[in-house]
Design brief:
Blueprint: E1 4-10, H1 14-25, E2 30-33, E3 48-50, H2 51-57, E4 71-79, E5 84-90, E6 101-103, H3 106-120, E7 123-125, E8 130-136, E9 139-145, E10 151-159, H4 166-170, E11 182-191, H5 194-201, E12 208-215, E13 223-229, E14 233-241, H6 242-247, H7 252-261, H8 266-269, E15 273-283, E16 294-295, E17 298-300, H9 316-336, H10 341-353, H11 355-362, H12 366-372, H13 375-392, H14 399-413, H15 415-429
Parallel strand pairs: 1-2, 1-10, 2-7, 4-12, 10-17
Antiparallel strand pairs: 3-6, 4-5, 8-9, 9-10, 11-14, 11-15, 12-13, 13-14, 16-17
Bound molecules: flavin-adenine dinucleotide.
Length: 430
């Protein structure tokens, strides 16, 4: 007779480890399968991890988590070919505990986080692919793995297997992702001495910075690029919707190479030694793409449930929060010994009422609107740069006349269409 657990967790990313940790801490018998050699060995992220959601699960994480740098400076760069319009915030309050967020390297972070779940009593099985869910009388009762005699049974299976969730597809929760629902991201980790990073980004030791770049950095395609400071390396990457890449016949690694050569970026990474090259998909469909989250004996969390807030570059925190909430629902279901969809649906309700559901709802039409209207990235960002250049150039022309020139740019584009575009953007972001 194959072994039976209270819960099987598929995937040891942030969502899976959050679920396994919460369940094991409550005394449930939990097994977590990871296809990689170790958790994180196959995972990719910029990556910024958020303190709040992590601390809810591991209150003393600061003592042992492999964090790179606490972020004190978040910048947004609107790029044209030879210029950049910059916005941002530097807050030294974030340099002190409790902090706001941190850069991490996933190969280290995921291993640590899964290890914390193991410390609580979860059983972690690496190098094992879960190939399908075992369904009996319309209820998920376990999983089949690629190990000999690899069937394992449980009251509940939590699918935390990431953006491509084969199991969620097998169970009919969602169809194959459309190219307009998913971004392809490529990134590089570039080694650089700590002092160079601190000089170039104006940081003290143990302070970090993030830059999100828009416009020319993706050649006007809907997406973002990013530059994040680690302890002794820089993560630099580009992510754009797959549909945009296909329509424009662009290759993501070419976009990354162009970004690295951009005149305002080049100096930040100059002299660095490329260490790793990584590529991964990001679910970007948002609220409208959230699949069915619960059925008899099964729940979906994290990227497998498409829980990414692309506007705010948040994914890992939504993954951890959803993993924790799914686990809390199972703990409650265990008390009444009922694992039907009806009982497990409390997870969906809690999730949709939390910041996860609320934030995704807030921006439900943002990505689609920006995708349908490339004017924002292709025309308004260059216009912002030209307007800034005009206003900041001191050339004997009065500021009144400069203002008129800037207004002339708007009129050239069409005043009515500009007002319409701005209203549309405000509506989807408000
Ligand atoms: C380039 C890039 C940059 C990003 N930057 C950020 C950022 O800065 N901040 C942020 O918050 N988010 C960021 N994200 C998003 C973030 O990485 C995800 O939202 C988050 O990792 C989701 O966690 P997860 O546990 O749901 O999925 P994953 O992290 O994808 O984990 C899924 C796990 O399941 C395992 N698995 C899959 N299938 C199976 C199977 N059949 N059997 C066994 N194991 C399986 C995988 O190996 C993996 O370990 C970024 C993503 C990318 C690609």
């Amino acid at each position: 007779m194959a072994e039976k657990f209270d819960v099987i967790v598929v995937g040891a990313g942030p969502a899976g480890s959050a679920a396994a940790h919460t369940l094991a801490k409550a005394g449930l018998n939990v097994i977590m399968f990871e296809r990689g050699e170790y958790p994180g060995s196959k995972n990719v992220m910029g990556g910024v991890i958020y303190r709040h959601q992590l601390q809810e699960i591991v209150p003393d994480f600061l003592e042992s988590a492999p964090l790179e740098r606490p972020i004190v400076q978040q910048n947004f760069w609107m790029m044209d070919e030879k210029s950049v319009f910059q916005m941002g915030y530097k807050g030294l309050e974030w340099a002190e505990a409790p902090h706001n967020n941190f850069t991490v390297l996933r190969a280290k972070f995921d291993q640590w986080f899964a290890g914390k779940a193991v410390e609580q009593g979860a059983l972690l099985i690496n190098e094992t692919v879960v190939t399908e869910a075992i369904v009996e009388d319309g209820k998920v009762i376990g999983v089949r793995t690629d190990r000999p005699n690899g069937d394992v049974y449980a009251d509940v299976v939590i699918l935390a297997d990431g953006v491509n969730s084969l199991l969620a597809k097998q169970l009919g929760f969602h169809k194959e992702l459309k190219p307009s629902e998913v971004a392809l991201a490529v990134m590089q980790v570039i080694n650089l001495p700590a002092e160079k990073i601190e000089d170039r980004f104006n940081l003290e030791p143990n302070q970090g910075a993030t830059i999100e770049l828009f416009g020319d950095s993706t050649k006007g395609l809907l997406g973002t690029s990013f530059i994040y400071t680690n302890k002794e390396s820089i993560s630099i990457g580009v992510g754009t919707l797959l549909s945009g890449l296909m329509e424009n016949r662009m290759k993501p690694y070419e976009l990354l190479e162009t970004l690295k050569q951009h005149p305002v970026v080049r100096k930040l990474i100059q002299g660095g030694e490329p260490k790793e090259y990584l590529a991964h998909l990001i679910p970007e469909g948002g609220y409208h793409s959230i699949p069915k989250l619960v059925d008899h004996g099964v729940m979906v969390v994290g990227d497998a449930a498409q829980l990414v807030n692309g506007i705010h570059r948040e994914g890992s925190n939504l993954a951890m929060a959803s993993g924790r909430m799914a686990a809390e629902t199972v703990i409650m279901a265990k008390q009444v010994n009922d694992f039907s969809a009806n009982i497990l649906d409390a997870y969906r309700t809690n999730l949709m009422n939390s910041f996860v559901g609320q934030d995704l709802k807030k921006y439900k039409d943002a990505a689609h609107t920006l995708d349908r209207n490339p004017v924002y990235f292709k025309e308004y960002i260059p216009m912002m740069n030209r307007a800034a250049s005009e206003m900041f150039t001191v050339d004997g022309v009065s500021k009144w006349d400069k203002q008129k020139k800037v207004m002339g740019m708007v009129q050239e584009k069409g005043t009515i269409s500009t007002i319409r575009d701005l209203y549309r953007a405000w509506k989807v972001m408000k």
